[in-house]
Here is the input.
Amino acid sequence: MDHTSSVKFFNRGPSPVVRLVFFTLLSLLLLVVDSRHQYLESTRNVLSTVIYPLQRLTALPPILWRGADDFFTSHARLESDNSTLRMQHSEDGARLVKLEGLEAENTLLRNMLGMRQRLDLPMKVAEVLYTERDPSRHMVLVNLGQADVQPGEAVLDSTGLVGQVTRVHPMLSEVTLITDKDREVPVQVVRNGLRMIVFGSGKSNELELRYAPINADLKEGDVLETSGLGGTYPPGLPVARVTHIERDPVYAFAHVQCEPVTGVNSQHWLFILAGLQKLPPRPGEGEEGSHGKAHKPARSAR
Here is the structure.
């Protein structure tokens, strides 16, 4: 093979400088033509449409990174905010419960003050400290002792009669509730003034109106208040409300159930009445001994 054939075989065309100048001039020409006549607008649109998915694909990693960063940042912030809100909710709930307790206590004290002004009797405020452990006895212990109260004094709350002081200790006093099976209260029907006696049934929140004649003028819903008979309780204190009446012609008395108008088992503050006027004893009770002595000489004279 001769030298001329080898030169033709390795011939690569124009030099790089020539090609650079050529394509530069071509580019400038295309720019001028496109700017003047907009010949390449359609070509540009086609190319932009073709390469748009590639552009979106190349822009996807930064978008995903920012999204993930925002997600984890927002998640951590939400967890922190939720924790703060839960703690604040618990604190607000505790404050609300305390506020409701104070509001109920203020309402109770206002009602008790109204009761005190209405009765116009000396009263002492007592706090319930203990309740009786024996379920068959309905009794509470209050924080007033021998220096403050005496056995037999009436006990009430802001709505009506609760019970009676039955035993006094040096620092505490026992209050037997009207629902105790050994308690009885002289009452009268507010609607018609009918006088009767209500007894404790030994059951929580239940009283019995015993010995009511079968034809007695009683209706369900009648309110019973203290009649003042006996001198133990002042007249006009709400005691109970009639809830159920059974009249059986076979029996001489009706079976009447009542419920206390007061929350005998739920009050924390009570009033103890003092200074009630003592009634003179029944004839034959206080004078029995003197009558017996007066008759002895007469019998001996005979």
